[in-house]
Amino acid sequence: MRFDILTLFPGICRPPLEHSILGRAASAGHVSFGVHDIRDHGRGRHRVVDDTPYGGGSGMVMRVDVIDEALQEVWQPTSHVVLMAPTGRPFRQADARRLAAKPHVVLVCGHYEGVDGRVAAHLVDEVLSIGDYVLTGGELAAVVICDAVARLVPGVLGNAGSLEEESFEHGLLEAPAYTRPFEYRDWSVPEVLRSGHHARIAAWRKAQSEALTQAVRPDLWAEYARKEVSNPSTRQKEPAGVVDMAAPSE
Ligand code: ADE
To answer: Taking CA atoms, which of 121, 167, 177, 227 is between 20 and 30 Å from 106?
Structure first.
């Protein structure tokens, strides 16, 4: 699978793609990343990429012609083009799975006050946001999407089993994990995890997942509960015991 990022700040995007799991996946040929400087397509001697907004308002707007030209350099018939913007649809694990099935994803990063509206309307397949907050640009968002998608590409993670059990895959957050030491200060690992009883451990993890999701993500819990009701064959009992959850202290 190929990812191309179009950005005014290639230096923000490259390092995270060159390290750790993504770096190794690229070296092994499971994925490849290209990072391209939109300013190469800027206008005039100063390579201008933006202009003042029609109708007035603050800030500068990135030009549609510049972005179109930058896109043409990487676009192929199989490309799926995404604009990163806080006005996009929220990116979720299901979107990561959907994008991981594409052969080529192009991520366009906006900067400054925004991007000419014709980019979203005519040049891209979709607009995605990574959360309800405004970043200084789409670069970090594009890297987040590369990371979430690339790790689902076969071969990128050694252990495919870990994908099955992780957060969001079944609409729930993942239960906490523990390792040695069994006792630390006066905090011990839940005894059931040492029992060797696989069914009891699975049931404990499920209950923990449910309690955690209910406590910290009522939105996900409502979605999960609704699906359980509409599919009684998988209906579970109410979540048992509560995990020790640190509340935010403001
Ligand atoms: N650019 C600025 N904020 C963003 C966000 N939350 N998601 C995606 N791109 C962005």
So the answer is: 167
User: What per-residue string of b and e applies to 201-219 under the rule 16 or more CB within 10 Å gives b?
Assistant: beebbbbbbbbbbbeebee
Give residue 173 CA to ligand 1 midpoint distance, Å.
24
Alpha-carbon distance 11 to 14, whole Å? 6
Q: Is any ligand 1 atom within 6 A of the Cβ of residue 85?
A: yes
CA of 177 to the centre of ligand 1 (A): 31
Contacts of residue 167, defined as CB under 8 A and 6 or more positions apart, other chains included, come to 93, 173, 174
In a domain, 121, yes or no: yes
Q: pLDDT at residue 163 above 90?
A: no
Question: Does the C-beta of 7 come closer than 6 Å to ligand 1?
Answer: no
Give the number of domains in the chain.
Answer: 2
Query: Does 187 map to a domain?
Result: yes
Instruction: Please tell me the predicted confidence (pLDDT) of residue 161.
Output: 59
* Domain ranges, residue 94: 2-150
pLDDT tens column, 34-85:
999 999 999 999 999 999 999 999 999 999 999 999 999 999 999 999 999 9
